[in-house]
Amino acid sequence: MRMPLSAVLSVALYLIAMPGLASAEDVPAPNPAPQAETVVAKDPVFTEEQLDQMLAPIALYPDALLAQVLMASTYPGQVSEAVTWSKANPKASGDDAVKKVANQPWDPSVQALVAFPQVLATLGQDPVWVQRLGDAFLAQPDDVMGGVQRLRHQAQAAGNLQSNQYQNVTVQAAPAPAPTASGGTTQVVAASSPPTTIVIEPADPQVVYVPSYNPTTTYGTWAYPASPPPYYPPPPMYYPGSALVAGLAFGTGVAIVASLWGDCDWDNNDIDIDVNRYNNINANNRIGNNQNKWQHNAANRDGVPYRDARSRQQYGRQLDGASQRTAFRGDDAQRAQARDKARASMDRAGIERPATSNRQARQQMREAQAGNTVGNRMQPRDDNSRVAERRQEARSTQARQQNNQVTPRRQGEGQARQLAQSRPGSSAGRARNNAFDGVRAPSRTSMQASRGRTSQSFAQRPSASRAAGHTISRPSAPVRRSGGGRR
Protein backbone atom coordinates (compact mmCIF):
# COMPACT_ATOMS: atom_id res chain seq x y z
CA MET A 1 0.00 0.00 0.00
CA ARG A 2 1.48 3.32 -1.10
CA MET A 3 1.13 6.45 1.06
CA PRO A 4 -0.12 9.63 -0.58
CA LEU A 5 2.49 12.20 -1.55
CA SER A 6 1.06 14.78 0.82
CA ALA A 7 1.43 12.36 3.77
CA VAL A 8 5.06 11.63 2.86
CA LEU A 9 5.86 15.34 2.71
CA SER A 10 4.25 15.93 6.09
CA VAL A 11 6.30 13.18 7.74
CA ALA A 12 9.48 14.51 6.22
CA LEU A 13 8.83 18.04 7.44
CA TYR A 14 8.09 16.69 10.96
CA LEU A 15 11.34 14.74 11.06
CA ILE A 16 13.30 17.81 9.95
CA ALA A 17 11.75 19.97 12.64
CA MET A 18 11.90 17.37 15.42
CA PRO A 19 15.48 17.97 16.70
CA GLY A 20 14.67 21.58 17.41
CA LEU A 21 11.44 20.66 19.11
CA ALA A 22 13.03 17.99 21.23
CA SER A 23 15.88 20.16 22.47
CA ALA A 24 16.22 20.17 26.25
CA GLU A 25 16.95 23.89 26.16
CA ASP A 26 13.74 24.75 24.35
CA VAL A 27 11.37 22.40 26.16
CA PRO A 28 10.62 23.61 29.73
CA ALA A 29 10.96 21.08 32.51
CA PRO A 30 7.66 19.90 34.01
CA ASN A 31 6.67 21.42 37.29
CA PRO A 32 7.44 19.12 40.23
CA ALA A 33 4.49 17.66 42.07
CA PRO A 34 3.49 19.94 44.91
CA GLN A 35 4.58 18.62 48.31
CA ALA A 36 1.25 19.33 49.91
CA GLU A 37 0.02 17.47 52.92
CA THR A 38 -2.23 14.57 52.15
CA VAL A 39 -5.77 15.42 53.16
CA VAL A 40 -7.81 12.38 53.98
CA ALA A 41 -11.31 12.77 52.68
CA LYS A 42 -13.90 11.94 55.32
CA ASP A 43 -17.61 11.63 55.04
CA PRO A 44 -19.59 13.78 57.45
CA VAL A 45 -21.06 11.91 60.35
CA PHE A 46 -23.95 14.36 60.74
CA THR A 47 -25.68 16.44 58.11
CA GLU A 48 -26.19 20.19 58.37
CA GLU A 49 -29.80 19.57 59.31
CA GLN A 50 -28.82 17.25 62.15
CA LEU A 51 -26.14 19.65 63.40
CA ASP A 52 -28.56 22.58 63.54
CA GLN A 53 -31.08 20.45 65.36
CA MET A 54 -28.67 19.38 68.11
CA LEU A 55 -26.91 22.77 68.42
CA ALA A 56 -30.08 24.87 68.66
CA PRO A 57 -30.54 24.54 72.48
CA ILE A 58 -27.00 25.82 73.27
CA ALA A 59 -25.94 27.96 70.30
CA LEU A 60 -26.93 31.18 72.11
CA TYR A 61 -24.88 30.44 75.24
CA PRO A 62 -21.97 32.80 75.97
CA ASP A 63 -18.85 31.73 74.10
CA ALA A 64 -16.96 30.60 77.21
CA LEU A 65 -19.90 28.53 78.49
CA LEU A 66 -20.51 27.07 75.04
CA ALA A 67 -16.87 25.96 74.89
CA GLN A 68 -17.20 24.19 78.26
CA VAL A 69 -20.34 22.38 77.12
CA LEU A 70 -18.74 21.23 73.87
CA MET A 71 -15.65 19.93 75.66
CA ALA A 72 -17.62 18.17 78.40
CA SER A 73 -20.03 16.55 75.92
CA THR A 74 -17.18 14.40 74.62
CA TYR A 75 -17.33 12.62 78.00
CA PRO A 76 -21.06 11.71 78.18
CA GLY A 77 -20.66 9.17 80.97
CA GLN A 78 -19.00 11.67 83.29
CA VAL A 79 -21.58 14.31 82.42
CA SER A 80 -24.28 11.93 83.68
CA GLU A 81 -22.39 11.52 86.94
CA ALA A 82 -22.05 15.30 87.27
CA VAL A 83 -25.80 15.65 86.70
CA THR A 84 -26.44 13.21 89.54
CA TRP A 85 -24.08 15.09 91.82
CA SER A 86 -25.70 18.42 91.00
CA LYS A 87 -29.16 17.05 91.78
CA ALA A 88 -27.90 15.92 95.17
CA ASN A 89 -26.35 19.38 95.75
CA PRO A 90 -28.83 21.80 94.13
CA LYS A 91 -27.50 24.88 95.96
CA ALA A 92 -23.86 24.33 94.94
CA SER A 93 -22.74 26.67 92.15
CA GLY A 94 -19.84 28.81 91.04
CA ASP A 95 -16.21 28.22 91.88
CA ASP A 96 -17.10 26.70 95.26
CA ALA A 97 -18.98 23.85 93.56
CA VAL A 98 -16.04 23.17 91.25
CA LYS A 99 -13.70 22.92 94.22
CA LYS A 100 -16.02 20.42 95.90
CA VAL A 101 -15.67 17.99 92.99
CA ALA A 102 -11.91 18.40 92.65
CA ASN A 103 -11.40 14.82 93.84
CA GLN A 104 -13.91 13.35 91.42
CA PRO A 105 -12.34 11.32 88.59
CA TRP A 106 -13.89 13.59 85.97
CA ASP A 107 -12.35 15.57 83.19
CA PRO A 108 -11.74 19.22 84.20
CA SER A 109 -14.26 20.35 81.57
CA VAL A 110 -16.94 18.24 83.29
CA GLN A 111 -15.95 19.52 86.73
CA ALA A 112 -16.31 23.10 85.46
CA LEU A 113 -19.96 22.50 84.55
CA VAL A 114 -21.03 21.92 88.16
CA ALA A 115 -20.64 25.68 88.57
CA PHE A 116 -23.82 25.97 86.46
CA PRO A 117 -26.48 23.61 87.88
CA GLN A 118 -29.07 24.99 85.45
CA VAL A 119 -26.91 23.84 82.54
CA LEU A 120 -26.52 20.35 84.01
CA ALA A 121 -30.28 20.23 84.59
CA THR A 122 -30.75 20.84 80.87
CA LEU A 123 -28.11 18.33 79.80
CA GLY A 124 -29.56 15.72 82.15
CA GLN A 125 -32.89 15.72 80.33
CA ASP A 126 -31.47 13.95 77.26
CA PRO A 127 -28.22 11.96 77.66
CA VAL A 128 -28.46 10.71 74.06
CA TRP A 129 -28.42 14.28 72.80
CA VAL A 130 -25.30 14.98 74.89
CA GLN A 131 -23.46 12.01 73.40
CA ARG A 132 -24.41 12.96 69.85
CA LEU A 133 -23.26 16.51 70.49
CA GLY A 134 -19.86 15.30 71.70
CA ASP A 135 -19.51 12.88 68.79
CA ALA A 136 -20.25 15.68 66.34
CA PHE A 137 -17.67 17.98 67.93
CA LEU A 138 -14.99 15.29 67.76
CA ALA A 139 -15.74 14.24 64.19
CA GLN A 140 -16.73 17.60 62.64
CA PRO A 141 -15.41 20.52 64.71
CA ASP A 142 -15.45 22.91 61.73
CA ASP A 143 -19.05 22.05 60.89
CA VAL A 144 -20.11 22.39 64.53
CA MET A 145 -18.57 25.84 64.91
CA GLY A 146 -20.01 26.90 61.57
CA GLY A 147 -23.44 25.63 62.63
CA VAL A 148 -23.33 27.73 65.81
CA GLN A 149 -22.62 30.85 63.80
CA ARG A 150 -25.35 30.03 61.31
CA LEU A 151 -27.92 29.69 64.10
CA ARG A 152 -26.76 32.90 65.79
CA HIS A 153 -27.26 34.83 62.59
CA GLN A 154 -30.76 33.41 62.29
CA ALA A 155 -31.62 34.45 65.86
CA GLN A 156 -30.19 37.91 65.26
CA ALA A 157 -32.20 38.28 62.05
CA ALA A 158 -35.34 37.30 63.97
CA GLY A 159 -34.62 40.04 66.53
CA ASN A 160 -33.96 37.62 69.39
CA LEU A 161 -30.21 38.10 69.87
CA GLN A 162 -28.92 41.47 70.98
CA SER A 163 -26.94 43.11 73.73
CA ASN A 164 -28.60 43.83 77.08
CA GLN A 165 -27.75 44.06 80.77
CA TYR A 166 -26.95 40.35 80.82
CA GLN A 167 -24.76 39.88 77.75
CA ASN A 168 -22.80 41.70 75.06
CA VAL A 169 -23.37 40.64 71.46
CA THR A 170 -20.80 41.82 68.90
CA VAL A 171 -20.37 41.09 65.20
CA GLN A 172 -16.87 40.67 63.88
CA ALA A 173 -15.55 40.34 60.37
CA ALA A 174 -14.66 36.90 59.14
CA PRO A 175 -10.97 36.01 59.62
CA ALA A 176 -8.69 36.80 56.72
CA PRO A 177 -7.46 33.80 54.70
CA ALA A 178 -4.07 32.56 55.87
CA PRO A 179 -1.24 32.76 53.26
CA THR A 180 0.30 29.53 52.06
CA ALA A 181 3.88 28.68 51.12
CA SER A 182 3.09 28.99 47.39
CA GLY A 183 1.86 32.51 47.81
CA GLY A 184 -1.85 31.69 47.63
CA THR A 185 -4.39 31.72 50.40
CA THR A 186 -6.26 28.90 52.01
CA GLN A 187 -8.90 28.77 54.68
CA VAL A 188 -10.92 26.03 56.30
CA VAL A 189 -14.52 27.18 56.28
CA ALA A 190 -17.46 25.01 57.19
CA ALA A 191 -20.25 24.59 54.72
CA SER A 192 -22.77 27.45 54.66
CA SER A 193 -20.72 29.47 57.18
CA PRO A 194 -21.77 33.12 57.48
CA PRO A 195 -19.31 35.83 56.34
CA THR A 196 -19.22 37.38 59.82
CA THR A 197 -18.76 36.04 63.33
CA ILE A 198 -21.13 36.76 66.23
CA VAL A 199 -19.47 36.75 69.66
CA ILE A 200 -21.49 36.51 72.90
CA GLU A 201 -19.83 37.54 76.17
CA PRO A 202 -21.16 38.21 79.69
CA ALA A 203 -21.86 41.88 80.42
CA ASP A 204 -20.00 41.38 83.71
CA PRO A 205 -16.92 39.16 83.25
CA GLN A 206 -17.37 37.71 86.75
CA VAL A 207 -21.13 37.00 86.53
CA VAL A 208 -22.58 34.67 83.91
CA TYR A 209 -26.29 34.57 83.07
CA VAL A 210 -27.35 31.35 81.36
CA PRO A 211 -30.07 32.08 78.77
CA SER A 212 -33.08 29.84 78.37
CA TYR A 213 -35.19 29.94 75.23
CA ASN A 214 -37.47 27.92 72.98
CA PRO A 215 -35.51 27.02 69.83
CA THR A 216 -38.65 26.50 67.79
CA THR A 217 -39.44 30.23 67.95
CA THR A 218 -36.15 31.99 68.81
CA TYR A 219 -34.56 31.30 65.42
CA GLY A 220 -37.52 32.52 63.42
CA THR A 221 -38.87 30.22 60.75
CA TRP A 222 -37.08 26.91 61.16
CA ALA A 223 -35.36 25.83 57.96
CA TYR A 224 -36.18 22.14 58.45
CA PRO A 225 -39.86 21.70 59.37
CA ALA A 226 -39.53 17.91 59.32
CA SER A 227 -36.77 18.06 61.97
CA PRO A 228 -37.69 20.68 64.57
CA PRO A 229 -35.14 21.38 67.32
CA PRO A 230 -35.77 19.92 70.78
CA TYR A 231 -36.93 22.15 73.59
CA TYR A 232 -35.80 21.46 77.13
CA PRO A 233 -37.80 23.59 79.59
CA PRO A 234 -35.65 25.41 82.15
CA PRO A 235 -35.74 24.21 85.76
CA PRO A 236 -38.05 26.60 87.65
CA MET A 237 -35.83 26.76 90.73
CA TYR A 238 -33.06 28.43 88.72
CA TYR A 239 -35.32 30.82 86.82
CA PRO A 240 -37.70 32.27 89.44
CA GLY A 241 -39.45 35.30 87.98
CA SER A 242 -36.91 35.37 85.16
CA ALA A 243 -36.75 38.36 82.86
CA LEU A 244 -37.67 37.74 79.24
CA VAL A 245 -35.52 39.78 76.87
CA ALA A 246 -35.93 39.35 73.10
CA GLY A 247 -37.09 35.76 73.38
CA LEU A 248 -34.43 34.82 75.94
CA ALA A 249 -35.07 34.20 79.64
CA PHE A 250 -32.29 35.00 82.11
CA GLY A 251 -32.36 33.57 85.61
CA THR A 252 -30.05 34.11 88.54
CA GLY A 253 -26.50 34.97 87.60
CA VAL A 254 -23.62 32.70 88.58
CA ALA A 255 -20.59 34.39 90.10
CA ILE A 256 -17.43 32.86 88.70
CA VAL A 257 -13.75 33.76 88.74
CA ALA A 258 -11.90 30.75 87.35
CA SER A 259 -14.56 28.16 86.48
CA LEU A 260 -14.75 29.19 82.82
CA TRP A 261 -11.25 28.67 81.44
CA GLY A 262 -12.18 27.79 77.85
CA ASP A 263 -13.21 30.03 74.97
CA CYS A 264 -14.23 29.57 71.34
CA ASP A 265 -11.56 30.30 68.76
CA TRP A 266 -13.67 31.17 65.74
CA ASP A 267 -10.61 31.71 63.53
CA ASN A 268 -9.43 28.11 63.86
CA ASN A 269 -12.70 26.45 64.85
CA ASP A 270 -11.31 25.03 68.07
CA ILE A 271 -11.15 25.96 71.77
CA ASP A 272 -8.52 28.04 73.51
CA ILE A 273 -7.58 27.49 77.16
CA ASP A 274 -6.80 30.26 79.61
CA VAL A 275 -3.92 28.54 81.40
CA ASN A 276 -3.95 30.87 84.41
CA ARG A 277 -7.65 30.38 85.07
CA TYR A 278 -7.34 26.67 84.51
CA ASN A 279 -4.51 26.27 87.03
CA ASN A 280 -6.29 28.42 89.61
CA ILE A 281 -9.30 26.14 89.73
CA ASN A 282 -7.54 22.83 88.94
CA ALA A 283 -4.81 22.83 91.56
CA ASN A 284 -4.46 19.04 91.36
CA ASN A 285 -4.14 18.93 87.59
CA ARG A 286 -2.05 21.84 86.38
CA ILE A 287 -0.94 22.34 82.80
CA GLY A 288 1.87 24.23 81.09
CA ASN A 289 1.65 27.50 79.22
CA ASN A 290 2.10 25.70 75.91
CA GLN A 291 -1.04 23.62 76.53
CA ASN A 292 -3.38 26.43 75.57
CA LYS A 293 -5.33 24.40 72.99
CA TRP A 294 -7.92 21.89 74.09
CA GLN A 295 -7.35 18.25 73.21
CA HIS A 296 -9.69 15.38 73.87
CA ASN A 297 -8.47 12.97 76.57
CA ALA A 298 -9.52 9.44 75.63
CA ALA A 299 -8.76 8.17 79.16
CA ASN A 300 -11.82 10.07 80.47
CA ARG A 301 -14.16 8.58 77.89
CA ASP A 302 -14.99 5.78 80.37
CA GLY A 303 -15.50 3.16 77.68
CA VAL A 304 -18.18 5.02 75.72
CA PRO A 305 -17.63 4.00 72.08
CA TYR A 306 -16.85 6.57 69.43
CA ARG A 307 -19.38 6.99 66.67
CA ASP A 308 -17.18 7.28 63.58
CA ALA A 309 -14.21 5.25 62.39
CA ARG A 310 -11.87 8.23 62.28
CA SER A 311 -12.47 9.09 65.93
CA ARG A 312 -12.05 5.46 66.92
CA GLN A 313 -8.74 5.33 65.09
CA GLN A 314 -7.56 8.66 66.46
CA TYR A 315 -8.61 8.35 70.10
CA GLY A 316 -9.17 4.66 70.67
CA ARG A 317 -5.45 3.83 70.60
CA GLN A 318 -3.96 6.84 72.30
CA LEU A 319 -4.33 5.81 75.91
CA ASP A 320 -1.16 6.26 77.92
CA GLY A 321 0.88 3.06 78.05
CA ALA A 322 -1.51 1.13 75.81
CA SER A 323 1.39 -0.62 74.10
CA GLN A 324 2.85 -1.63 77.48
CA ARG A 325 -0.39 -2.61 79.16
CA THR A 326 0.36 -6.32 79.23
CA ALA A 327 3.76 -5.73 80.79
CA PHE A 328 2.21 -3.41 83.34
CA ARG A 329 -0.14 -6.21 84.37
CA GLY A 330 2.82 -8.52 84.97
CA ASP A 331 2.29 -10.54 81.81
CA ASP A 332 5.49 -11.98 80.34
CA ALA A 333 6.70 -14.95 78.33
CA GLN A 334 7.15 -17.15 81.39
CA ARG A 335 3.58 -16.63 82.53
CA ALA A 336 2.29 -17.19 79.03
CA GLN A 337 4.15 -20.52 78.90
CA ALA A 338 2.71 -21.52 82.28
CA ARG A 339 -0.79 -20.73 81.04
CA ASP A 340 -0.26 -22.90 77.96
CA LYS A 341 0.89 -25.81 80.12
CA ALA A 342 -2.12 -25.41 82.40
CA ARG A 343 -4.49 -25.40 79.44
CA ALA A 344 -2.87 -28.52 78.00
CA SER A 345 -3.21 -30.25 81.37
CA MET A 346 -6.89 -29.30 81.52
CA ASP A 347 -7.43 -30.75 78.06
CA ARG A 348 -5.80 -34.05 79.06
CA ALA A 349 -7.93 -34.25 82.19
CA GLY A 350 -11.11 -33.53 80.27
CA ILE A 351 -11.69 -30.21 82.00
CA GLU A 352 -13.28 -27.49 79.93
CA ARG A 353 -11.17 -24.43 79.39
CA PRO A 354 -12.53 -21.20 80.89
CA ALA A 355 -13.67 -18.59 78.42
CA THR A 356 -11.22 -15.78 77.75
CA SER A 357 -13.84 -13.32 76.44
CA ASN A 358 -17.57 -12.68 76.62
CA ARG A 359 -17.99 -13.78 73.04
CA GLN A 360 -16.31 -17.10 73.69
CA ALA A 361 -18.41 -17.62 76.85
CA ARG A 362 -21.62 -17.06 74.89
CA GLN A 363 -20.42 -19.43 72.19
CA GLN A 364 -19.61 -22.15 74.71
CA MET A 365 -23.02 -21.72 76.31
CA ARG A 366 -24.78 -22.02 72.96
CA GLU A 367 -22.75 -25.10 72.04
CA ALA A 368 -23.48 -26.73 75.39
CA GLN A 369 -27.20 -26.10 74.95
CA ALA A 370 -27.10 -27.38 71.40
CA GLY A 371 -25.27 -30.52 72.53
CA ASN A 372 -28.33 -31.63 74.56
CA THR A 373 -30.37 -32.23 71.39
CA VAL A 374 -29.98 -35.33 69.25
CA GLY A 375 -29.74 -33.42 66.02
CA ASN A 376 -26.89 -31.27 67.15
CA ARG A 377 -24.96 -34.28 68.40
CA MET A 378 -24.57 -35.40 64.82
CA GLN A 379 -22.88 -32.15 63.86
CA PRO A 380 -19.10 -31.79 64.14
CA ARG A 381 -17.99 -29.95 67.24
CA ASP A 382 -14.71 -28.60 68.47
CA ASP A 383 -12.66 -29.89 71.40
CA ASN A 384 -14.37 -27.65 73.95
CA SER A 385 -17.79 -28.96 72.94
CA ARG A 386 -16.66 -32.60 73.24
CA VAL A 387 -15.15 -31.94 76.65
CA ALA A 388 -18.39 -30.32 77.79
CA GLU A 389 -20.39 -33.33 76.59
CA ARG A 390 -18.11 -35.79 78.39
CA ARG A 391 -18.44 -33.83 81.63
CA GLN A 392 -22.22 -33.71 81.28
CA GLU A 393 -22.43 -37.45 80.60
CA ALA A 394 -20.19 -38.19 83.59
CA ARG A 395 -22.44 -36.14 85.86
CA SER A 396 -25.56 -37.93 84.55
CA THR A 397 -23.98 -41.37 85.07
CA GLN A 398 -22.90 -40.51 88.61
CA ALA A 399 -26.36 -39.20 89.45
CA ARG A 400 -27.99 -42.41 88.15
CA GLN A 401 -25.62 -44.58 90.19
CA GLN A 402 -26.34 -42.66 93.34
CA ASN A 403 -30.06 -42.94 92.67
CA ASN A 404 -29.79 -46.71 92.16
CA GLN A 405 -27.99 -47.05 95.49
CA VAL A 406 -30.46 -44.95 97.42
CA THR A 407 -33.65 -46.47 96.02
CA PRO A 408 -33.16 -50.09 97.32
CA ARG A 409 -32.15 -48.81 100.73
CA ARG A 410 -35.27 -46.69 100.93
CA GLN A 411 -37.40 -49.61 99.78
CA GLY A 412 -35.88 -51.88 102.48
CA GLU A 413 -36.51 -49.28 105.14
CA GLY A 414 -40.12 -49.02 104.08
CA GLN A 415 -40.68 -52.78 104.17
CA ALA A 416 -39.09 -53.06 107.63
CA ARG A 417 -41.26 -50.25 108.90
CA GLN A 418 -44.41 -51.94 107.61
CA LEU A 419 -43.42 -55.27 109.20
CA ALA A 420 -42.75 -53.64 112.57
CA GLN A 421 -46.08 -51.91 112.48
CA SER A 422 -47.88 -55.18 111.80
CA ARG A 423 -46.50 -56.80 115.03
CA PRO A 424 -48.65 -56.04 118.13
CA GLY A 425 -45.83 -56.39 120.64
CA SER A 426 -43.25 -54.40 118.75
CA SER A 427 -42.27 -50.91 119.68
CA ALA A 428 -43.39 -49.70 116.31
CA GLY A 429 -46.71 -51.46 116.83
CA ARG A 430 -47.16 -49.85 120.23
CA ALA A 431 -46.40 -46.51 118.73
CA ARG A 432 -48.94 -47.04 116.01
CA ASN A 433 -51.57 -49.04 117.98
CA ASN A 434 -52.34 -46.61 120.74
CA ALA A 435 -55.62 -45.63 122.42
CA PHE A 436 -57.47 -45.74 119.13
CA ASP A 437 -56.61 -49.37 118.51
CA GLY A 438 -59.48 -50.62 120.72
CA VAL A 439 -61.98 -48.81 118.63
CA ARG A 440 -61.04 -50.97 115.68
CA ALA A 441 -60.75 -54.28 117.78
CA PRO A 442 -63.24 -54.44 120.74
CA SER A 443 -62.20 -58.03 121.64
CA ARG A 444 -58.64 -56.85 122.23
CA THR A 445 -59.91 -54.16 124.59
CA SER A 446 -61.81 -56.76 126.60
CA MET A 447 -58.73 -59.01 126.79
CA GLN A 448 -56.61 -56.13 128.07
CA ALA A 449 -59.24 -55.37 130.76
CA SER A 450 -59.22 -59.03 131.94
CA ARG A 451 -55.45 -58.97 132.07
CA GLY A 452 -55.61 -55.92 134.32
CA ARG A 453 -58.01 -57.59 136.78
CA THR A 454 -55.80 -60.66 136.95
CA SER A 455 -52.76 -58.54 137.81
CA GLN A 456 -54.72 -56.85 140.59
CA SER A 457 -55.83 -60.13 142.11
CA PHE A 458 -52.29 -61.41 141.96
CA ALA A 459 -51.11 -58.41 143.97
CA GLN A 460 -53.62 -59.41 146.77
CA ARG A 461 -52.48 -63.07 147.09
CA PRO A 462 -52.00 -64.47 150.72
CA SER A 463 -48.29 -64.87 150.42
CA ALA A 464 -47.86 -61.21 149.79
CA SER A 465 -50.21 -60.21 152.63
CA ARG A 466 -48.66 -62.64 155.13
CA ALA A 467 -45.23 -61.30 154.42
CA ALA A 468 -46.49 -57.83 155.16
CA GLY A 469 -48.17 -58.90 158.53
CA HIS A 470 -51.74 -58.33 157.41
CA THR A 471 -54.75 -60.48 158.19
CA ILE A 472 -55.55 -62.86 155.41
CA SER A 473 -59.07 -62.77 154.16
CA ARG A 474 -60.07 -65.43 151.67
CA PRO A 475 -63.00 -64.90 149.46
CA SER A 476 -65.80 -67.41 149.77
CA ALA A 477 -66.04 -70.02 147.11
CA PRO A 478 -68.59 -69.21 144.53
CA VAL A 479 -71.83 -71.23 144.73
CA ARG A 480 -72.48 -73.00 141.54
CA ARG A 481 -76.08 -73.85 140.88
CA SER A 482 -77.23 -76.27 138.32
CA GLY A 483 -80.77 -77.27 137.82
CA GLY A 484 -81.91 -75.38 140.88
CA GLY A 485 -80.11 -77.61 143.61
CA ARG A 486 -76.64 -78.19 145.19
CA ARG A 487 -74.62 -81.16 144.10
Outline the structure in words:
This protein has 487 residues and is mainly α. Among the domains are: 257 residues, no CATH class; 35 residues, no CATH class. Helix content is 47%, strand content 8%. Strands 6-8-7 form a 3-stranded antiparallel sheet, with no helix packed on it. It has a two-stranded antiparallel ribbon with strand order 1-4. A hairpin with a 5-residue loop joins β2 and β3. α2 packs across α9, α3 packs across α8 and α4 packs across α7. It is elongated.
Number of strands: 11
Largest sheet: 3 strands, antiparallel
Over the alpha carbons, how many angstroms does the gyration radius reach?
A: 49 Å
The share of residues in helices is: 40-55%
Morphology = elongated
Low-confidence runs: 5-41, 185-191, 319-329, 374-379, 426-432, 463-472, 482-487
Give the spatial strand order of the biggest sheet.
6-8-7
Number of helices: 21
Mean of residue pLDDT values: 75
Question: Main attributes?
Answer:
487 residues; mainly alpha; 47% helix; elongated; disordered C terminus; signal; DUF3300; DUF3300 domain-containing protein
Compact summary:
With 487 residues, the protein is mainly α. It contains 21 helices and 11 strands.
Layout of SSEs?
Blueprint: H1 5-21, H2 48-55, H3 63-73, H4 76-88, H5 94-100, H6 108-113, H7 117-123, H8 127-139, H9 141-157, E1 167-173, E2 178-179, E3 185-186, E4 196-202, E5 207-208, E6 211-212, H10 215-218, E7 243-245, E8 248-250, E9 254-255, E10 262-265, E11 270-273, H11 275-281, H12 309-315, H13 325-328, H14 333-348, H15 358-370, H16 374-377, H17 383-422, H18 427-432, H19 437-440, H20 442-459, H21 462-468
Antiparallel strand pairs: 1-4, 2-3, 5-9, 6-8, 7-8, 10-11
